[in-house]
Amino acid sequence: MTLRFLLWLPVFLLLLLLLLLRVDPGCEAGIQENRAGSGPPLADRGSEPQVWPVGMVLKGSSEALCPPPSLELRPSCNKSQPSPPLGSGSQPHDGVITEDKEPVKYGELIVLGHNGSLSNGDKGRRRSRLALYKRPKANGVRPDVIHNVSTPLVSKALSNKSQHSISYTLSRSHSVIVEYTHDINTDMFQIGRSTESMIDFVVTDTAGGSSGHGGGAAGEGGGGGQSAQSTISRYACRIMCERSAPYTARIYAAGFDSSKNIFLGERAAKWRTSDGLMDGLTTNGVLVMHPAGEFVSEPAPGVWREISVCGNVFALRETRSAQQRGKLVDNESNTLQDGSLIDLCGATLLWRTPAGLRHIPTLKQLESLRQELNAARPQCPVGFNTLAFPSLAQREIVDKKQPWVYVNCGHVHGYHNWGYRKEKGPSSPGGTAPAGTGDRECPMCRRVGPYVPLWLGCEGGLYLDAGPPTHAFCPCGHVCSEKTVVGWSQIPLPHGTHAFHAACPFCGTWLTGEQGHVKLIFQGPVD
To answer: 20 to 30 A Cα–Cα from 1, which one of 17, 159, 427, 475?
Structure first.
């Protein structure tokens, strides 16, 4: 009996186990349903990004400061808009340009003193003209949090390369750091001498002034090379453009460096504003002049002002780098308008809006004007040889048929090597001077003055209209419309620390004479 019981015992145990298994699958299914409702298994969650609810910030985490330094400045600061999953590119403010939609142009920056291109050619971000378009993704920033810290903690606070900030050093033991957060409504463009990737427009010193002369200034007057002792800041200024109409552009002094910081040292001009915020000026300053009227219809110069780091407008300092700021100008703003001039202490930029660019001549139109001038067959009144303006691409080599002008009277001739007044210029063998130097006596009216070749202005963005090229700047000989020469001859451009002088916008040469320009007198064909 005992042996029989032992033989059947495994069978009973097996049946009991099967009975229990028929009940447990239901419980196991319930457990699996609960796990599915709470998300993927814990073993699988490590490979998926954690998406926290909008507005939730973990205590003690780096996300307590907005924006999170570990993220790429996503719009998590705006609590009214949910944050998209990481890696998603379908944000509504991305401004992705489709094939059937033209890109939005904010405006164009044109460096004065370069007649269409740098002397060694436009290359990448180093060029004479740059168009600012709406970015695929907003990269603007705005002030967020202010910290009062001791100086030893400044380096630690500025070490976060994902956080834009401006540091104001008040003393050896006290600094104020203003943190900036991502702004989904603006695009930021930075300008400066540095060739680092954060600079959108690389600008170098423009050679010009009183030494420029003749056609050579068109190619040589704005060297693309970097000056040995440049006065332009590596991070000179930044322009913030609103991504929605009317696409307002505003300028601010100083730009963020590779660590996304702006550092104003102890000697820099800075102060605390009435509302408890901070502001300051850069070493050589960023000057801006808005036109008094419409730049195209009623060109008239305004007043030069200085722009601060926070975009406030001030009267000029006594000298360019003085530590005492000028008086605050409340009724003016840092908003750029068509014809606004930006001086970086070494280079001057012109801002043209899309509306203003519609009035300027294109390269095709300038070429048509050149052909019309040559079709009239102007002749030298002495040699009776036909004159012809060279092509727009030929800006450095003087052509044998190129017209020359006596800038004091406007009579146009062909080139000749006589009439040089030896006593008024540098001595040279044979009593003659090199082309484009010294004073000559006009054989038509006997007036003595510079004798230079004529060059068409090739940078259409510097024109005020598309009128016929009937006038030339003195003494460089750049030819353009009457409205253009009259307008630019009234604008004083900064030079040095506190000097201002009108200059040719195509080459940077200081203007001379009573008006700074002359009407050209062509001799028609004899036949």
So the answer is: 17
Helices (H) and strands (E) in the chain, counts: 7, 27
Say which residue the tokens 């890109």 belong to. 103
Domain interval for residue 262: 105-137+184-215+230-357
The verdict on 303 and 284 lying in the same domain is yes
Cα-based angle 349, 110, 367 (whole degrees, multiple of 5): 145
Residue 395 lies in a domain: yes
Element (H, E) at 216: helix 216-220
Last residue of a domain, one of 317, 333, 357: 357
Compute CA distances 451 → 245, 437, 442, 478, 482, whole Å: 50, 7, 9, 13, 20
Residue 152 belongs to some domain of the structure: no
452 and 341 within one domain: no
Residue type, 379: Q
Alpha carbon distance 242, 260 (integer Å): 21
Q: Are residues 244 and 114 in the same domain?
A: yes
Q: Are residues 289 and 374 in the same domain?
A: no
Residue-wise pLDDT for 276-317, tens only, equals 889 999 999 999 999 988 888 777 889 999 999 999 999 999
Q: How many domains does the chain have?
A: 2
What CATH number corresponds to the domain at position 253? 2.60.200.20
Would you call 289 helix, strand, or coil by DSSP?
A: strand
CB distance 233 to 193 below 8 Å: yes
Residues paired with residue 335 on neighbouring β-strands, in sequence order: 250
- The string of pLDDT tens digits covering residues 99-143 is 447 889 999 999 998 887 776 766 778 888 899 999 999 999 999
Is 262 in a helix, a strand, or coil?
strand
The tokens for 261 are 């910081």
Assess if residue 494 is contained within a domain: yes
Q: Which residue, chain included where needed, has tokens 């926070």?
A: 310
Residues 465 and 346 in one domain: no
> For residue 487, how many other CB atoms are within 10 A of its CB?
23
Most confident of 7-16, 176-185, 225-234, 495-504: 176-185
Same domain assignment for residues 381 and 483: yes
Q: H or E stretch including 28?
A: helix 2-37
